[in-house]
Design a protein that fits this description.
alpha/beta, Purple Acid Phosphatase, chain A, domain 2, 8-stranded mixed β-sheet, 6-stranded mixed β-sheet, 18 strands, globular
């Protein structure tokens, strides 16, 4: 929800006091979250008339949707769960997320204190407190369709689904079965129906072993193109604006893969308003695929450790302005740099100008045309 008081609190109250996370509660019975919004209801993400703090005011009738990349509450970022006030978990850039009518990012971790680690190199987990921290930091929707959502096996998945069922924020891209995993979160923003879907295109153990099925819990997979495209087409019957948040790409590569460009075109044809994603630990090009906005990679955001990939500490928030007709009519980018504490600090002055120019330069190999600009 975008309220002036919330945005003001984020602006005035952001401090960094380290603390510790909590232990996950016992598992509860999972309940579906995607598609739960009903006409006339006031779900999370419904807009108010509060002006944006990080961009020029948006005329009535238009809506703004903000996107950020991968988040961990692990390693050096685990203490962010204990900062006061709670909206400070993501640092000052949280105000950019809170200023948008709707904001989405990826939580790349299991939510569990149990389970055996899967046969893979890296394992990430956190507590349900992470979902409250993201909500308090101005995030409206969390994707968990990624290659680390089931790092701790069936027990970890059970706990993650329990956390989803009792979450204070919509969690998409994972579920007790395929119907729930592919289900959109649907809400009304500025009188416009908006649906958000998430899926993973990463070819890995998680997508092979823990892909959601008819009676099988797991993540939504973009490798099952027909399932994802059908989800988008169905969402389009419910909402004028359909956003697809994907985990995709190749680590360290600043140009999209053939798999990325292929699915982006198909999603555009299926009616997606915007296709946004992350995974590569570096930013990729953004722009228009016909009438569909595509961001091929938003990079690391709240990041647990260092990375050897070039420019992996460069990140930021992309904010789209969407017309009442469901068309992307503006794009702005708030650049940030991941510091030694793992927190994305907004950049200003020449550093911000250079970051925006660098992002523009990544568009060439992405095959996209420039999006309309909101901020010059």
């Amino acid at each position: 929800m975008r309220r002036a008081a919330t945005a003001a609190a984020l602006l005035l109250g952001l401090v960094a006091v380290a603390g510790c996370g909590s232990t996950p509660p016992p598992p509860a019975t999972p309940a579906a979250q995607g598609g739960s919004a009903q006409p006339g209801a006031a779900p999370a993400g419904t807009a108010s008339a509060a002006p944006a703090l990080s961009a020029a005011p948006v005329p009535d009738g238009k809506l703004t949707i903000a996107f950020a990349g991968d988040v961990h509450f692990e390693g050096r970022t685990q203490p962010r769960l204990g900062v006061k006030p709670p909206e400070a978990a993501l640092g000052p850039i949280a105000q950019t997320l809170a200023a948008a009518d709707l904001s989405v990012l990826n939580l790349e971790t299991a939510i569990t204190g149990r389970g055996a680690p899967e046969a893979k190199i890296y394992h990430f987990r956190t507590s349900p407190q992470a979902l409250a921290a993201l909500r308090d930091s101005g995030v409206d929707v969390v994707s968990m369709a990624n290659n680390h959502a089931v790092d701790y096996g069936p027990d970890g998945l059970t706990d993650t689904l329990a956390a989803q069922a009792s979450a204070p924020i919509p969690v998409i891209g994972i579920g007790r079965d395929a119907q729930q995993a592919y289900a959109p979160y649907v809400t009304t923003v500025e009188g416009v129906r908006v649906a958000v879907i998430a899926a993973s295109q990463i070819v890995d153990l998680t997508n092979q072993k823990y892909r959601a099925g008819a009676a099988k819990p797991g993540i939504a997979s973009a490798l099952d193109e027909s399932a994802l495209l059908n989800a988008v087409k169905q969402a389009k019957t419910q909402a004028k604006v359909v956003v697809v948040y994907l985990h995709w790409g190749e680590e360290g590569k600043t140009c999209p893969t053939a798999a990325q460009t292929s699915i982006a075109k198909k999603l555009a044809q299926a009616g997606a308003t915007a296709v946004v994603g992350t995974h590569a630990h570096t930013m990729l090009g953004t722009g228009m695929q016909g009438g569909t906005y595509v961001a091929y990679g938003l990079g690391n955001f709240l990041w647990y450790g260092t990375s050897d990939y070039k420019d992996s500490d460069e990140t930021g928030v992309v904010t789209l302005t969407v017309s009442p007709e469901g068309k992307v009519v503006g794009e702005s980018f708030t650049p940030a740099h991941v510091g030694a504490d793992g927190v994305p600090a907004p950049q200003t002055g020449q550093a911000a100008t250079a970051a925006r120019a660098r992002l523009d330069g990544l568009r060439g190999c992405a095959g996209l045309s420039p999006a309309p600009r909101d901020n010059g």
